[in-house]
Amino acid sequence: MPHRWIIDRPIAHRGYHDMNNHIWENTRSAFARAVEAGFPIECDLQLSSDDVAMVFHDYDTQRLCGVEGVVREMTAAELTALNVGGTADTIPTLSDLLEQVNGAVGLVVELKSPDARDIGAFAKSVLEDLDGYPGNVVLMSFDTDLMQALADSGTDWPLGLVAAEFNDADREKNIAALELPIDFVSFCVDHVPSDFLELARAKGLTVISWTVRDEASEKIAAEHTDQITFEGFDPMALSA
Description:
Blueprint: E1 11-13, H1 28-37, E2 41-47, E3 53-55, H2 62-65, H3 76-80, H4 94-101, E4 107-111, H5 119-130, E5 137-141, H6 144-152, E6 159-163, H7 168-177, E7 184-188, H8 195-202, E8 206-212, H9 215-224, E9 227-230, H10 235-238
Parallel strand pairs: 1-2, 1-9, 2-4, 4-5, 5-6, 6-7, 7-8, 8-9
Antiparallel strand pairs: 2-3
């Protein structure tokens, strides 16, 4: 299975940052630290106003860059000029990330849910950037319409559902999503154990968890999932 590498090593959530003290999430510094440690990188994508895939979690720039702005309303040039957390790091594009990592570690890429009108443009931009990339990549999202669009494109990149169970509506949505042509599920560690995960496993899907921040959550995840997505600690130190 081309996606099974995601269970080999703990996955660094938004890169191997230090909880935004000195090394900020989704930055080149966080990605370099993950590569050095040998951790796969989880990261987030948003779409710029000129349809460039940007590595950025939030829909606006206030929390991470200290300036007002809506990512989808800003050009890639405007976004890449912004410093993250007052550091020298600026917002990278997906192309920047791919050039930096160049297959050194795997990439677990979450596409943040766009406006429904932007689904086609988002999928197209991401897949064009990934064309010919030599490393391991999986693509995932909460947005089932976006995952369907990626599947309909005929892409060979493995696909996954990001999921949580805050209420019955979430549970129903997750179960329905098992009909999608997906390879894995990334599930909220705060919501395990879950009957949904048993259904996912029955379909042969790999299960990873998000976001593990301490040893207690790591133990829970180890009982119910195949691998963790972590931040704020060194998961290898727990097994040393």
